[in-house]
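Justification of resources, computational component.

The compute hours requested in this renewal are based largely on the per-chain cost of generating structure records like the one below. Each record pairs the submitted sequence with a full structure-token output. That output is archived, and it is also reused by downstream analysis tasks.
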Amino acid sequence: MSARRLSCNHVALGLEMNLAKLAVAILVWSCLLPGQTLACRYNVRDVGFVDLGGEPYVFYAYLRQDTPKELLTQLKEISSDLLADSNIDSDIINIDQQKDHIGLKYLPAEAAFPAGVLVSPDGQSLPLAFGKSQ
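The structure output for this chain reads:
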């Protein structure tokens, strides 16, 4: 009879140890679950603003008909390379040909060409000047 009682105690002890291991495993698992991160959703990188959600920014480049083709090609290459991993879309506008483009409303009246404007999703704009490299 004592052997049977020992066997029952051994089974009960094993069950308690298994439950304890299960409880620890559940606790560890719940700590490792991805939860809502309490951080700023905006991150500034060297290539632009990275927003972890929402609408992208838009960079409008304004050119005239007489803009050299080399400059247009460079602008296309640079904007596609630099802005590829950011949330900034680029749009090159020829103001002589695209007179009804939606991006023309952000063009400053005193802009020297070529010109650029960075527009946020909420409509705020930041005029950018293109300078010659020295």
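The chain has a mean pLDDT of 75. The helical segments are 2-32, 69-82.
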